Amino acid sequence: MAILIDGISKRFGDFIALDDVSLEVRDGELTALLGPSGSGKSTLLRIIAGLEVPDAGRIALSGRDVTHVPPQQRGIGFVFQHYAPFKHMTVRDNVAFGLSIRKKPRAEIDARVHELLSLVQIEQFADRYPSQLSGGQRQRMALARALAVEPEVLLLDEPFGALDARVRKELRAWLRRLHDETHVTTVFVTHDQEEAMEVADNIVVMNHGAIEQIGAPRDLYEHPANEFVMGFIGEVNRLDDGWVRPHDIDILLDEVPGSVEAMIERVIYLGFEVRVELLRRDGSRVWAQVPRDQAEELELGVGQIVSTRAREARTFPSVVAA
Amino acid sequence: MTGAHGVLESPAGMQTGKAPAASRAFGRRWPRLAVRLIGLLYLALLLAVPVGLIFVRTFAGGLEPVLDVLRSADFQHAFWVTVTLTAIAVPINTVFGVITAIALVRRRFPGRGLLNAVIDLPFALSPVVIGLSLLLVYGQNGLLGGWLKDMGFQVIFAMPGMVLATVFVSLPFVTREVMPVLREIGTDQEEAAYTLGASPMRTFWRVTLPSIRWGVIYGVVLTTARSLGEFGAVSVVSGRLSGKTETLTLYVEERYSEFDLIGAYTAAVVLALIAVAVLLVMNALQSGRGARAREWVTDRIRVRRRTAVIPTPMNSEV
User: Fold this and answer.
1) Nearest-CA distance from B106 to chain A in Å?
2) Are B313 and B52 in contact (CB under 8 A)?
3) Residue A213 and residue A205 in contact, taking contact as beta carbons nearer than 8 Å
């Protein structure tokens, strides 16, 4: 089900959470709302769900204007940042909640709950209470609960934010697979660019209550519309003549035209990737990302004097940075 | 190095210098023991000894005089008056208290601050003052009293006035117990229920109420204790007509001033037993439930037990 967001504004007191935001999410797509905290991404998600009412603008789901429709009647599933489990209910009753509200027959509920619990792999914990589950299990229960009512749109607010790195990685891949199987239109909020790039078909980059750029992950990385997007999606160095990605800085042992002499201040081995922090002759500091074998070939060491060359510095028309 | 550690950890160790390990351990422990002892002594003198003595005195003359009191018409009438008042006041204040708590915590409306302050009025005012103020409104020459009398409806010196007084003095408990719980559970679970299709009403019954039930139960216990024990306000509005508008607490005081000590003690013991029974019922509700909830309730009991002191002739509120 496609989502149409048209000119949405929302303020909380003096704080402008969203300022005239418009966006279209196509049917069956997996979209990430990416931005720093306070950028309005969660507010936008809550407005799509009907948990907040916009001050201006309208929301349509599959062409139906739902701006003033309560969350109960929007056909959405919502996964909260801290899972919002019903603490007094077992895992089974949590997942069955939406179906029992819809007064489905007992047998049908049981079958569906069983199916969902095995889908999210927490079948064996059906009779436990949420407090007896780990964070990752609670998250999967929350997903199963949201999916139980067969929503046409799945909305997730920082779904993996509170989990440790390993579980987070696992669940990301799992969410992607789930989406590939079900094709339910999905929007999730994250402040983690890697998460957005790994999972989403489309990324909406937000900042200060407005959309900075919309595009596919690779698109955004290679053709950022402005400094903010370039800085938020991937790493950057600020040079006199523009912005450059760390992997676009070459380290050479000899001077070449256009190169700048620099001293190596620090070398950090991160497995495949090696980070080299450099102090350039003009006093600026940059860091370069080089593959391990290249770093070894050059025999890079602290205090060494090398040449640096920016391969692809990028400039943006100077707009007043917000 | 260990010695240096000991000195750092305990000021007592500093004075004893190279004392043996056992004595050093005691040195570290004695302030804690002393605090406990003081606490226990305080509770014993204030609570356990006076209440215990009543039990002892009641049965000092054997069982027969006690049974005589229990069989007397005045006692039985007073008992039922108290039970009736409590049975009316507790449900009213429970429903009102939960609604008020939700309004105060979840809603923003003009006059919210004022309502929040007014809720505590029954805590702040002496019950006697509450009784007098009710008299001013509903009494013979009161604001509404004359008109109500013409309508054939007597409030003061009758059950309606006593119900009003009891409801008034026990009003804040449920609200005040439920508010912090509501704040703690937040709105996440309720919003989750909405997105799953539950109407606000169903969300209240299936999500909110089960989440705040410990607050409600404890509020009910305190409301019950307060209603059973109310003296001052009821004393003013009831007219204290023996066998008519006399509650158990009034009965205790009346017997006491008539030098019928056994009568007073027996009624006091009955009041205490009712309160204990209420606490036991709550404990029964509590057992077999989650450990967290239990912890929460016991914490509350520790903090609030003193508010539930059973009135006896010695601590009546006049």
Assistant:
1) 14
2) no
3) yes
CA–CA separation, A228 and A321 (whole Å): 8
Q: Which residues partner with A64 through β-bridges?
A: A61
Q: Give the residue among B94, B290, B86 at the shortest CA–CA distance from B173.
A: B94
Per-residue pLDDT of chain B (318 residues; tens, 9 = 90+): 344 444 444 444 444 445 566 667 677 788 888 999 999 999 888 888 888 888 888 888 888 989 999 999 999 999 999 999 999 999 999 999 999 999 999 998 999 999 999 999 998 899 999 999 998 988 888 888 788 888 888 888 889 999 999 999 999 999 999 999 999 999 999 999 999 999 999 999 999 999 998 899 899 999 999 999 899 999 998 888 887 889 999 999 999 999 998 999 999 999 989 888 888 887 777 654 544 554 555 455 544 444 444 434 333 333
SS3 (DSSP) at A177: helix
Residue B268, C-beta contacts closer than 8 angstroms, at least 6 positions apart: B54, B58, B252, B310, B312, B313
Supply the pTM of this predicted model: 0.78
Element of type H or E holding A70: none
Residue B168: C-alpha distances to residues A276, B92, B102, B234 (Å): 74, 11, 20, 10
Residues within 8 A of A (CB atoms), B 230-259 only: none
Residues of chain B found within 8 Å of residue A98, distances taken between Cβ atoms? 196-197
Complex prediction ipTM: 0.86
Closest in B192, B198, B207 to A78, CB measured? B192
- The residue type at B95: V
Nearest to B188 among A70, A77, A80 (CB): A80
Residue B37, CA distances (Å) to A142, B3, B49, B133, B207 in order: 49, 29, 16, 44, 43
Q: Which of B188, B190, B195 to mutate to test binding with chain A, by most A CBs within 10 Å of its CB?
A: B195
- Give dist(CA A60, CA A68) in Å, integer: 10
Nearest Cα of chain B lies from the Cα of A196 at a distance, in angstroms, of 24
Q: How many residues does chain A have?
A: 322
Contacts of A159 in chain B (CB under 8 A): none
Whether B292 has its CB under 8 Å from any CB of chain A: the answer is: yes
Strand A237-239 relative to strand A64-65, pairing:
unpaired
**What residue spans of chain B are helical by DSSP H?**
2-9, 11-16, 21-43, 49-58, 63-71, 73-106, 112-119, 121-124, 127-138, 145-150, 159-169, 172-185, 188-195, 200-203, 209-229, 232-238, 248-257, 261-286, 291-304
Q: Are A262 and A287 in contact (CB under 8 A)?
A: no
Is A255 strand, coil or helix? coil
- Count interface pairs A-B at CB distance under 8 A: 59
Stretches where chain A sits below pLDDT 70 are: 317-322
Task: Say yes or no: B193 contacts chain A, CB-CB below 8 A.
Answer: yes
Chain B partners within 8 Å of A71 (Cβ): 191, 194-195
d(CA A84, CA A146): 11
* Assigned token pair, A301: 């060491």
Record the tokens describing residue A258, joined without a space: 């256009």
Burial class from Cβ neighbours inside 10 Å (0-12, 13-18, 19+) for residue B239 reads middle
Bridge partners of A210?
A207
